[in-house]
Amino acid sequence: MLLKQIFVDNGAPIKMHIHHSIANVNARAALSQRIMHSGGDPTASPQSARVILADPNTEVFQHLVKSYQGVPDKYIESYLWVKKCVEKGALLYTPLVYKNPGGRRPGEERTPFTDQDEERLCQWIATKIPYKETGGRTGNRLYQQLCEMAVDPEYVWVTRHTWQSWRERYKKNSARLDNLIAAIVDQKKPAHGEKGQYGYVRKAEERPKRAPRKTPRPRKRCEKSVEESLHTEEKVVGDINSRITSTPPIIIFPSVPPAQFEGGSQPSTSTIPRRSPDEEEMEDGEDNEEWQIRIGNEPPPTWVKRKTSDDEREEPPTPKRARSLDYSSGDQPRANPVSQTNSDILAQVNLHVIDQAISDIASEYRFTVQEVKEFYDKCGEMERTRARFQKMRLILSTISEDIGDEAV
């Protein structure tokens, strides 16, 4: 069935252009087929087309409407316009509607100013700017504030004119209206800067000054050094305890008998003046047998640097560690509960744990305590000392087996 040929003008097909704002390919193909079935030509360019079909939901549609608004015999239509025309069976363009361009219609008069309007205007200016030398009578804001007062029942009259009209009325008749304003000011005699006058506002509140923030007092260097030393000692003791599986010995400090004084009285410890660290160190050094000196042809003391063997030269040097105590002579460490500090106690606990570990290694691998102690003083590592004497015991066991086989 042949459709009604509605897109025809004087027997010629109406040229139409399908704008690229219609992005759907299937919609463009269906629209083109419907135009051709109804007698139109959808292949025209935008310049030669009489009707341009576009998507009304895009910004380009409004741009096309404004661009071709003044061009006669050129129409911008929606892609739905084709379907409406086919359903109605007629070519109907979108009608034009009248839009009021503004301004007064011919013959219409403005609202005239009355004497009462001028009197009210002078009252307003005399209240806000009583003295002309202050300035501001021809500004915009003065008359905008006047029109903003329309919500007040006493100022309903301001709606008769716009703020531009009130301003122009004063500007064109300022010489005459200034005399009326001066007469009103002479009656009220307001002072400069009274409340309510134009340009004067309330002074801002002074903000209270903030007190400067106090910076925290830095800790003294001595406090830091004491804390760091305690942490270091705790770390060393914890490391040794984690390596040694045996239970550390319980240390019992011998009590110091009180000194005897003449008269049978014993002074309190709080009144004894404490000596300097140098004097205490020198006094301790005199009684310490570990740091003896060589006299004549006697053998060198134990603290003299010993020559390293060939096997030990190959081992890389390690940092020196704390020396263990030598109890071979039967001497026991003396404790001074008055002057002994926490660091001394920790160091003494550390040395007793090392001596116990050295004794365990000597007993396990059947070596003397002196041999194990000498090697530990050189290397400073308990695990390395244990591995060393374990290896030596294995080598000695192998040698003894070989000797037994040869004897057989």
UniProtKB/TrEMBL annotation:
<dbReference type="Pfam" id="PF08914">
    <property type="entry name" value="Myb_Rap1"/>
</dbReference>
<feature type="region of interest" description="Disordered">
    <location>
        <begin position="251"/>
        <end position="339"/>
    </location>
</feature>
<dbReference type="InterPro" id="IPR015010">
    <property type="entry name" value="TERF2IP_Myb"/>
</dbReference>
<dbReference type="GO" id="GO:0042162">
    <property type="term" value="F:telomeric DNA binding"/>
</dbReference>
<keyword id="KW-0539">Nucleus</keyword>
<comment type="similarity">
    <text>Belongs to the RAP1 family.</text>
</comment>
<dbReference type="GO" id="GO:0010833">
    <property type="term" value="P:telomere maintenance via telomere lengthening"/>
</dbReference>
<dbReference type="GO" id="GO:0031848">
    <property type="term" value="P:protection from non-homologous end joining at telomere"/>
</dbReference>
<dbReference type="GO" id="GO:0070187">
    <property type="term" value="C:shelterin complex"/>
</dbReference>
<feature type="compositionally biased region" description="Basic and acidic residues">
    <location>
        <begin position="223"/>
        <end position="234"/>
    </location>
</feature>
<feature type="compositionally biased region" description="Basic residues">
    <location>
        <begin position="210"/>
        <end position="222"/>
    </location>
</feature>
<feature type="domain" description="TERF2-interacting telomeric protein 1 Myb">
    <location>
        <begin position="113"/>
        <end position="173"/>
    </location>
</feature>
<comment type="subunit">
    <text>Homodimer.</text>
</comment>
<feature type="compositionally biased region" description="Polar residues">
    <location>
        <begin position="263"/>
        <end position="273"/>
    </location>
</feature>
<comment type="function">
    <text>Involved in the regulation of telomere length, clustering and has a specific role in telomere position effect (TPE).</text>
</comment>
<keyword id="KW-0158">Chromosome</keyword>
<feature type="compositionally biased region" description="Polar residues">
    <location>
        <begin position="326"/>
        <end position="339"/>
    </location>
</feature>
<feature type="region of interest" description="Disordered">
    <location>
        <begin position="192"/>
        <end position="234"/>
    </location>
</feature>
<dbReference type="InterPro" id="IPR009057">
    <property type="entry name" value="Homeodomain-like_sf"/>
</dbReference>
<keyword id="KW-0779">Telomere</keyword>
<feature type="compositionally biased region" description="Acidic residues">
    <location>
        <begin position="278"/>
        <end position="290"/>
    </location>
</feature>
<protein>
    <recommendedName>
        <fullName>DNA-binding protein RAP1</fullName>
    </recommendedName>
</protein>
<dbReference type="InterPro" id="IPR039595">
    <property type="entry name" value="TE2IP/Rap1"/>
</dbReference>
<feature type="compositionally biased region" description="Basic and acidic residues">
    <location>
        <begin position="307"/>
        <end position="318"/>
    </location>
</feature>
